Amino acid sequence: MQEKKEKYTIGEFSFETFHEYRDGQEDVRKIECINKELNIQDPEVAVRLYNDIRSGKITFKTPIGDQFFSHLADVVADKSVGLLEDKAVVEEAEGKVKYQKVLGLLFIALAVVSFAVFGIAEVRDIITTRKMQQMASQVQKNEQPKENTSQKENTDQQPQEETKIDPSTLTVLPDYESLLQQNQDMVGWITIDDTSINYPVVQKDNTYYLDHSFEGKTNSNGSIFVDERCNLVNPTTNTIVYGHNMKSGMMFGGLKNFLQGDYVESHKTIHFNSLYEYHDYEIVAVCLSEVQYQDETNYRYYDFVSAKSEDDLQQFIQNVNELAVYGDGNSLTMDDKILTLSTCNSYTEDGRLFLVAKRIK
Q1: Does residue 183 carry a pLDDT above 60?
Q2: Catalytic residue among 33, 230, 287, 344
Q3: Under 8 Å between Cβ of 271 and 357
Q4: pTM for this structure?
Q5: What pLDDT digit, counting tens, does each position of 33-64 carry?
Q6: CA distance 227 to 234
Q7: Contact at 8 Å (CB) between 244 and 225?
């Protein structure tokens, strides 16, 4: 008698082999991450995501992913035709809608079942921490000193050198005196009104506070910390601040809400104070990116710290404009003090969400 072949199922989908079944689980995880991290009903987000899947940046291996792509095509065709420059993409999206329509609830249900069984949420926290460690390590490796000859060639484009401030001559704001006594790594405080973001900010190296609290205890939430290359007393052109994207909403978990244009408009001001001064920043762009590793030559937004020339700033602005889901960097000038908030985002592997703001006060 021929042995009955075991079948594996996820929702309405059946798989002949365990290998295909695991591929299906992986597709479910990707879909759940996308639905959680991105608002695919937003036309601009839907178009960007559609093109990322179409170009192969985001890949699926099973019919589960194919159905999600068809559903996304439905959204694109229904809401985003005016945003697509390539008419062939529009026609393709409309064709997929006619061929097949699916409900987004299917994917949420599948994601809940898969995650309940396999406990992916806890695993993803660990993976996120490790990937941020890789990013921090990569940032340190990529920061190479410029040769004097190169500096001489750009002398006519460099901004005038500002007088350096000695921190010992400054007075710590009363609000932060006791906190500074608790932790000498404290460099400021960040708040965004009507959000959960309201934290002390520290600075050490780019790895310690990935898994340590403000009190110095091991904690998977980590802390909000400034890139080690930045200086808040004698500010670099761009101050980069990192924080985990926690499922609980802690740290920078709330930044995903800024992918919605209406939310940005009502939460445009970031209060980011140093130990010595109160400052406000206005958000000019919300962007999605990916970590670029050492063997890749693409522009890295997290490498822009000090603009040595107008060309440096223009490269950053161009990158922001290419990656922006909301706004652009066109209003930035060499006179601006820029603030970049950076966190993980699971819309794609090694995805990053970052907000760009400029000082207004």
Answers
A1: yes
A2: 344
A3: no
A4: 0.61
A5: 888 778 888 877 888 888 888 777 788 888 88
A6: 14
A7: no
Check pLDDT > 90 for residue 221: yes
Q: Angle 104-118/18-37 helices, nearest 10 degrees? A: 110
For the question of residue 344 being annotated catalytic, the response is yes
Task: Say what the pLDDT of residue 36 is.
Answer: 76
Nearest to 62 by CA among 107, 96, 2: 107
Q: Is the separation of the CB atoms in 52 and 34 below 8 Å?
A: no
Question: Token pair for residue 216?
Answer: 């110095």
Q: What is the pLDDT confidence band of residue 150, given thresholds at 50, 70 and 90?
A: very low
List helix spans (H) across 144-207.
148-153, 177-182
CA 166-168-174 angle, to 5 degrees, is 120
Q: What's residue 93's pLDDT? A: 54
Tokens encoding 187: 């460099």
Confidence of residue 193 (pLDDT cuts 50, 70, 90): very high
Q: Tokens in use for 223?
A: 């802390």
The answer to whether the CB of 215 falls within 8 A of the CB of 181 is: no
DSSP 5-54: PP-EEETTEEESSHHHHHHHHHHHHHHHHHHHH--TTSHHHHHHHHHHHH
Distances (CA, A) of 338 to 43, 109, 273, 298, 356: 28, 42, 13, 21, 7
Quote the pLDDT of residue 100.
47
Which is nearest to 311 in space by CA: 241, 237, 240, 239? 237
Residues sharing a CB contact under 8 Å with residue 220, sequence separation 6 or more, in sequence order: 125, 126, 129, 211, 244
